[in-house]
From TrEMBL:
Listed transmembrane segments: 20-41, 48-67, 96-117, 129-146, 152-170, 182-203, 223-250, 262-286, 292-314, 326-349, 361-385, 397-421, 433-453, 496-517
Gene: nuoN
Record field: catalytic activity: a quinone + NADH + 5 H(+)(in) = a quinol + NAD(+) + 4 H(+)(out)
Protein name per its UniProtKB record: NADH-quinone oxidoreductase subunit N
One Pfam family named in its UniProt record: Proton_antipo_M
Chief localisation class: membrane
Amino acid sequence: MTHLAVTAAGSLIQSIDWAAVAPLLVTAATALGVLVGDLFLPEPRKRLLGWISVGGLLLALIFLVPLRDGDRATFCVRAAGAPGDAPACSYVADHFALVIQLLVLAGALLAALLSIHTVEADRLPSGEFWFLLLSSVTGAALLPAARDLATLVVALETVSLPAFALVGLRRDGRGGEAALKFFLSSVTATAVMLLGVSFVYAATGSMHLTRIAAALPHVPAQLKTLALVGVVLTLVGFAFKTAAVPFHFWVPDTYAGAPVPVAAYLSVVSKVAGLSGLALVSVVGFHSYGRTWGLALAILAALTMTLGNVGALRQRTDAPHSAVRLLAWSSIAQAGYLLVPIAAAGYGTAAPGRDPLGATVAYALIYGVVNLGAFAVVALIVGRIDDYRGLFASRPATALVMAFFLLCLAGLPPGVIGLFGKVVVFRAAIDSGLGWLAVVMAVNVVIALYYYLGWTAKIFQATPVPAAPAVPVHTTPDSAVPVAASAAVRRLPLPIALCLGLATVVGVVLSVAPQLVLQVTSGSLFR
């Protein structure tokens, strides 16, 4: 049974489906709780704030379970005098929203586990860090359920604004520079997007995506150019949030300057949230312009995956922070793969029973798990890719896990789930008649093998034990510690071990039974 909370236009009283918005409320309440708790907890006990944040995210995940039928909506209005019209809702908990919220909250949970160790080791302000992280997560969870342009913009900025501050929390100077680049480029994209939203509203007279979709084909001739420009500018704003080329230039410096868990969060949670917004406005709101934005997104996807892989190839393995920077360029390339099914959805020629958007959701689930796992190892061994030489000799379990994640990203066995994800995206492109894009993707997959396999090979290379005295594994983000010197002197921190364990278990289970991903994303994703 569909659950709706509807009010007539102009009414000031509206019932709210609290169960539908419960995951967001839990996350927001936890954010406020840790901020207030920071005022009263003594310094030695502020580590508890991290575990409280993890508990809040886990509780938010539990509150998704009652919504699994995907039939709830709230903040709905029906036009006055037209009781037979379908209501337009601002918040819809359909299957698309629930799967993305699952990924967002689970990804944030893994990033929070990584952050517990980093906040303590780097002496970051606990209350501020956890409040900002949870606030951003709240926006990321709201975004896939938003069904009007105003809510989408507010949710997107709720994701971004705390993220600026998270990047700048580093006290070594690089964090401030990275945050400034992130902030200036994001503000520019937001201004462009708001201009586009205003044009779309002027042309259609509505902010709700369903009503925009119904109005766009019937826009008066004198407003058609305005509507088209509005569609393009709105999509440009969301393309920036996904780090699509040419809006990718902020990513490498921002990831390298941010704390490693924040970079992990941006690479998965923030990116997936931006992709969900792009999918909503294009597939739901701007469906009648599908051929136009479908071709534009296909070109963006080809450019993004190509430039991302070329940038990764140019990374020197002995350069400072090369591990994070390579993952940053890799995340840009992965964004290109994620854009392929959204572009395919614009053509509307997929085979019966195959939703191209489901391929994006499936690939996002796969990418999120393995990329966060790779960042977990990088959070343990901060520095250059060359510092991973000999990891297998000193930490065999960590080495095998890292190799598994890299092979998943490359799409090679035993990382079967990575190969499965790429096949799903290939099929979406071919079913929609985008054979040329499938060829570009195939070439890029081969190019990516070079740097993924190169990093994997270093893990298993032998290296002499350095004569320098052993030092802790994690001191500061700028102190690259040779693996052979550091690995034996400190046990794996519990939060990182939990993150690695969860990511590995999920990755292995999905590699054994990849059909689980298709079961989650099969069927109609929208109400």
